[in-house]
Amino acid sequence: MRQIIFATGNKGKMKEIRQILAGLMIEGEETEILSMKEAGIDPEIVEDGKTFEENAVIKARAVAAYAKDAIVLADDSGLEVDYLNKEPGIYSARYLGEETPYSVKNHHIIERLQGVEGKERSARFVCAIAAVLPCGNVLTEVATIEGRIDYEEKGSNGFGYDPIFYVPEYGKTTAELSEEEKNAISHRGKALRAIRERLEDNK
């Protein structure tokens, strides 16, 4: 059985990843998907890239250095709010401090958009996925979902900035979508399906 190690300790992400990559076969072999914690890997990772893609590659390579014969995947994702000059961007997880609850981060963003209406509240989620293969080759995919910042937190599904990210086509925040709905349209869902296809095609 092939091992795929995902460079994250985020339980919400791992749940989504396992759902989207379920049944993945590589060269006829079934795959087992582990978080780096489950694989017993905990490297020091310095995310000093300037883009989501660069940071995803940095994380994947850091874990791959400890993962023999496994495929290592990593993502770097975040929220870009156009009115705030695309903040928090690549600093989404560290915005206002890594230990700061997302309820506080979400409220802060809503406060900063006070008086801003309609399309000026435009935003997107961005996800870059990097895969480091046992041979050392690196594959990357980047995907987005467009929406806008809602006026209050809504919904209890998802995690992070999901309760304030409104998707006009659905008339809901991503925290109000079902898991199936969210995975079908999300930035992470799109990027994971693209990297899955390349792993299955071995290219």
**Amino- and carboxy-terminal Cα gap:** 20 Å
> Which shape, going by the Cα principal axes?
globular
Provide the β-strand percentage band: 25-35%
What is the H-and-E element order?
EHEEHEEHEEEEHH
In CATH terms, what is the architecture? Alpha-Beta Complex
What profile does the largest beta sheet have? 9 strands, mixed
Number of helices: 5
Sheet/helix structural class: alpha+beta
Give a quick set of tags describing it.
alpha+beta, 203 residues, nine-stranded mixed sheet, 28% helix, globular, Maf protein, 5 helices
Summarize the helices and strands and which ones pair or pack.
Elements: E1 2-6, H1 11-20, E2 25-26, E3 29-35, H2 52-64, E4 71-81, E5 87-88, H3 102-112, E6 122-132, E7 138-149, E8 165-167, E9 172-173, H4 179-185, H5 187-201
Parallel strand pairs: 1-3, 1-4
Antiparallel strand pairs: 2-3, 4-5, 4-6, 6-7, 7-8, 8-9
Helix pairs in contact: 4-5
Question: What does this protein look like?
Answer:
With about 200 residues, this protein is of the alpha+beta class. It has one domain (about 1-200): Maf protein (Alpha-Beta Complex), CATH 3.90.950. It is built from five helices and nine strands, in the order E-H-E-E-H-E-E-H-E-E-E-E-H-H. It has helices at about 10-20, 50-65, 100-110, 180-185, 185-200; strands spanning about 1-5, 25, 30-35, 70-80, 85-90, 120-130, 140-150, 165, 170-175. Strands 1, 2, 3, 4, 5, 6, 7, 8 and 9 form a nine-stranded mixed beta sheet that branches. Strand 4 (about 70-80) and strand 5 (about 85-90) form a beta hairpin. It is globular. The model has no long low-confidence stretch (mean pLDDT about 95).
